[in-house]
Amino acid sequence: MASISGLGSSSSTFKPDKFTPKTPLSSLLARDSISIAFPNRSKFFERCCDRASIVPAQLVAREIPANLSNTNDGLPEKKKKGLEKDPRELWRRYLDWLYQHKELGLYLDVSRIGFTDEFVEEMEPKFQAALRAMKELDEGSIANPDEGRMVGHYWLRNPKLSPNSFLRLQIENTLEALCKFADDVVSGKIKPPTSPEGHFTQVLSVGIGGSALGPQFVAEALAPDNPPLKIRFIDNTDPAGIDHQIAQLGPELASTLVIVISKSGGTPETRNGLLEVQKAFREAGLDFAKQGVAITQENSLLDNTARIEGWLARFPMFDWVGGRTSVMSAVGLLSAALQGIDIKEILAGASLMDEANRTTMVRDNPAALLALSWYWASGGVGSKDMVVLPYKDSLLLFSRYLQQLVMESLGKEFDLDGNRVNQGLTVYGNKGSTDQHAYIQQLREGVHNFFVTFIEVLRDRPPGHDWELEPGVTCGDYLFGMLQGTRSALYANDRESITVTVQEVTSRSVGALIALYERAVGIYASLVNINAYHQPGVEAGKKAAGEVLALQKRVLAVLNEASCKEPIEPLTLNEVADRCHAPEDIEMIYKIIMHMAANDRALIAEGSCGSPRSIKVYIGECKVDEILFLLLALRAISISGSRDVWKDFPWICQQVTGTSSWAVLRYWSLIPSQPNVDFFRIIMGVIELNRRLRINLGIPAIRHCYALAKSSGRLGRYFLKAKGTDHHLITMLASSGKRVDDVMVNVRGNWEFGKGEDRPDPIPRRKGDPGNRLKKIFLSTDDVVLEEIKSALRYFGRSNVQKQGRAAHILLLYEPTYTTFSVADGIPIPSGDQHLSALLFPSFKSLRQIGLEDSDSGEDTEPVVEVIAEPTREVAEEAEEVDEAIRLAFEAAGLNQPSPSTSVRAEFSSGDIFYEFGRPTR
Ligand SMILES: O=P(O)(O)OC[C@H]1O[C@](O)(CO)[C@@H](O)[C@@H]1O
Q1: pLDDT (tens digit, 9 = 90+) per residue, 457-486?
Q2: Is the Cβ atom of 324 under 6 angstroms away from ligand 1?
Q3: Which of 243, 601, 745, 749 is deepest in the core (most CB within 10 A)?
Q4: SS (H, E, C) 36-69
Q5: What's the pTM value of the predicted model, to 2 decimals?
Q6: Among 3.40.50.2300, 1.10.3210.10, 3.40.50.10490, 3.10.560.10, what is the CATH number of 153-350?
């Protein structure tokens, strides 16, 4: 057994080279000095096999349910033989197929996968094609055709392989910059802002999927017991989970570096995590920007936010690195470096493994061997699941990491030729030996729908720390015994397995493991002819989630309207569904209502939850004043553009929306250029849309129709008065020195004209309806909609208010929703998922269903007022700043059109706006 003991070291006395596949095993055995007497069946084998399991594999196969049996696994019947059980032959097979990477000290044993020589031979051409495809990918081909992208995660660990020097420099410079940043943080050169003497002590990493799993795995596997900075993760939009992480940080929030990771920069869960963390910072009186780090694609929403808000640092994610293979970019490396993990060793391990995976001899190529095993075990159609069992606590998250890497890459509906193939490979697992007390029972004896991957770590403890807890046996020996025992016992019962063995869990071996599986996934994807680098299915789920939220807004609008009647009109679920024009969505509406009712959302559901038909719902709180307040706040922003107001604005919106986020109509980006009637037209249009369509676009809880009218006096005054209260507001329209028409907001519904001394005389009676201009019937394709948005944007920046109004109205049709903004230095920054189409399509269904008729010719319609103001120098300077903010907001939204300009902005002060309310106090 001398050769076996040598397995534990990289300078192994075991010489697998001798057993290369090129040499016939029989002749090797004949001349090799190893001479071990094999009984026909080893004692150990006997022990593992109960009587039932000794039956030939063919018989076992008959017991497998038809849909899981080998006859369904995509392999022709002739290729199947039972698993080798003769110990001598098995040993030969082991030696024959064992792969060793000497420098890495990594072994791959696929002998317990039952592929035959004929199978390997038949697969050879496919493998050669797959390996060629991988070579082309390495050289910069568009390996992700759907997205027209290169796939370059392999260049990250060997930048010299990048297809051009620009990419090489990008990689090298980023690595250098992140190393320097991490060094400066760890050494205390970069300090937490509130503690000039102190150090950052914690990292809070916000991200999801590939923007979380890699950093999590690396931290769990490699972080020292006392890292320079400890790490926590927010990887979901679960409020309780987020609260828990923030609570655990406690006062250490002040010394927490928050790393926000999102390749796209617009993933909702990550956006929510960021907003929640920013709120915690505000509440603690901390300045988030000074502790925030963004890792994202250049010019993404997150990138622009971080840039404009002046976050502490920003690192790029590259277009050609996918989320699930991004762990060796700044995504995984920055947090690793901050924890004191040797990131250069991770890269070195991966690079060495990549090199091995480039060989065109399948037997010598570990990734190809894995792909071969997967193909055989799952029939090339995913008929068996991959159970990953690392026998080492620190590798616990490897199975979770692989789950995304493998399933998001291989789980595809169509192949590259457009055939429906529904490919995939299911991955699950936890860790051994813990799982022996959970699900190994089923693996051994139950449904045979899996193969296992054991991850074995030879070194139990650092040298000099081990001890024998019973004579001749250490704790680690037990772990070893459990692994080997399980492997044998499963095999004896015809359960196939792969074993990957590493010496120790080190940066190098972790890098190698990741690289091994990344490449195996790529090769396997080529074998089954699918694109491993896109994820169209996930997008569908995201879109569906957006539709649920859009439906929730409509439900709220309907309930709000009914609940503001006197007396309140509680609605049954059927009534809510009918009024939402969504009878087919009644179950979803029920769930929405139950969720809101359970969360103190002012929504009261009477009846029994278990009996949905009995439920009647209403909203217990009206928000009339808030709407009014919002209108005024928005107007204040639009016409003053003053820094003070920017600062107040989030606060105001927070009050208005009743949510913790800062909300404002997206049209805000138009508003500074439309300080007058058109601004109100926008607001009115939104309200009108809500009223007509019974949806809730933009301003939560709107339930009244406001109409816009104008008077012809010299001074314009706005009158708004809530029925049953004495409040009424008067604001002034700026006098431009030229012609200023009186403008008035005429309020219908529960509102009436203000009466009293301040009322201008005469109050116009004619009412314009901003909704009249909404005459588009929605068309059916996304492209058409986006074209319309573009054409609307062409009207921006025109000094002719009417044209701006036209733009506003076109946009109203397509993007009638609000977004979140944060404010830095008086500049509002969009901080949500702002992509036009993402915002648009949740509402699309309902708008299209209903359509909007042309009511342009309505007699009541007033022509738009034209206000041309000559800006003072001060205003002009301010206007430039605001213009820049708007331009950036547009850029962030991915709109390359000219942004609106402030050139026609009139002067106005926020003091005027809050004439009656007084300034809000925080
Ligand atoms: O890094 P992002 O763009 O926030 O995406 C996070 C994750 O979401 C996905 O796109 C799937 O939804 C993953 O591929 C990705 O890892």
Answers
A1: 999 999 999 999 999 999 999 999 999 999
A2: yes
A3: 745
A4: CCCCCCCHHHHHHCCCHHHCCHHHHHHHCCHHHC
A5: 0.66
A6: 3.40.50.10490
